[in-house]
Amino acid sequence: MILVGLTGGIGSGKSTVSLLLEGKGAIIIDADAIVREVQLPGSPVLTELAAKFGSEVLAADGSLDRQAVANIVFTDPDALKALNAIVHPAVGKEMNRRMIEQRTTDRVVILDIPLLTENPREGLQGKIVVDVPVEVQVERLVNFRGFAEEDARARISRQATREQRLETADFVIDNSGDLESLTAQIDKLWTWLVSLPQLPADYEPITPTPNAGPKSPNKNT
Ligand code: ATP
Questions:
Q1: Whose CA is closest to atom 17 on ligand 1?
Q2: Exposed, middle or buried, 33 (CB in 10 Å: 0-12/13-18/19+)?
Q3: What is the arithmetic mean of pLDDT over 91-97?
Q4: To 10 degrees, what angle do helices 66-74 and 77-102 make?
Q5: How much is the pTM?
Q6: What's the pLDDT score for residue 209?
Q7: Closest approach atom of ligand 1 to CA 17
Q8: How far is the CA of 130 from the centre of ligand 1 (A)?
Q9: How confident is the model over 195-208, as pLDDT tens digits?
Q10: Which residues sit with their C-beta closer than 6 Å to ligand 1?
Q11: CA-CA distance, 108 to 216, in Å (whole number)?
Q12: What does the alpha-carbon distance between residue 146 and residue 65 come to, in Å, rounded to a whole number?
């Protein structure tokens, strides 16, 4: 297995890059998708969240009302800590399970982690950063994702800066251009990825330290 992290600001194009890499044959472990999965109705995480925050965080159909949770933790750092303490271990465990599932293969495994700069992770062979100017980020969030401009800017300002992300990047994807330009860069990225050495078959994923939770709720909380 070759194991690399993928990160970038909100709306920078991580999912688009992931899809293109999947097309090349990569296995994508999507942290956001796993957050949603571990909180599905009937899950121990959802039960714990309801016990901690009350039934107001449950929607009428029994699923997690993400907006209700976001409203609670937005102004209450202790509540955010409690939320992370419930959700993060389950997410970490599932991510590790998926890495272990691949460790005896020769696949390129991409960990798509939106807050990887904010919460660094050991044991990766490199970090891909999808980079866009803030104005492009805002424009795409408003035009394609239905965000109000003010909300887009507020979310961006709560994340690491573009400079902070670039400082620790091993491979930078410039996603300020069109999809054709992005696709051309994916070809180069893939050449780099497959040039990395294979990890040993008994590779043990390193779980980030528990107190390194996000400083602000992400879009899944
Ligand atoms: P999030 O942080 O919310 O998970 P993301 O980083 O995964 O977002 P994407 O969903 O891949 O970002 O991209 C955000 C939006 O911008 C999507 O609607 C996507 O189709 C569009 N997009 C991505 N790259 C480009 C591009 N090069 N040109 C035009 N649109 C793009």
A1: 144
A2: middle
A3: 96
A4: 130
A5: 0.92
A6: 66
A7: 11
A8: 10
A9: 999 999 999 998 77
A10: 8, 10-16, 32, 114, 140, 144-145, 175, 178-179, 182, 219
A11: 30
A12: 19
Give pLDDT tens digits for 28-68: 999 999 999 999 999 999 999 999 999 999 999 999 999 99
Here the tokens at position 39 are 């909180």
Q: Model confidence at 219, in pLDDT bands (50, 70, 90)?
A: low
High-pLDDT (> 90) share of the chain, %: 91
pLDDT band at residue 215 using 50, 70 and 90 as cut-offs? very low
Enter the tokens of residue 9.
Answer: 């600001």
User: Which atom of ligand 1 lies at the shortest distance from residue 181's CA?
Assistant: 27
Angle value at C-alpha 134, between 71 and 65, nearest 5 degrees: 20
Query: Which of ligand 1's atoms lies nearest the C-alpha of 176?
Result: 27
Counting runs of H as helices and runs of E as strands, what totals does the chain give? 9, 5
Do the beta carbons of residue 159 and residue 215 sit within 8 Å?
A: no
Nearest in space to 111 (alpha carbons), one of 220, 218, 4:
4
CA of 13 to the centre of ligand 1 (A): 4
- Mutation probe of ligand 1 site: the residue of 14, 16, 110, 136 with most atoms within 8 A of C-beta: 16
Percentage of residues of the chain with pLDDT beyond 70: 94
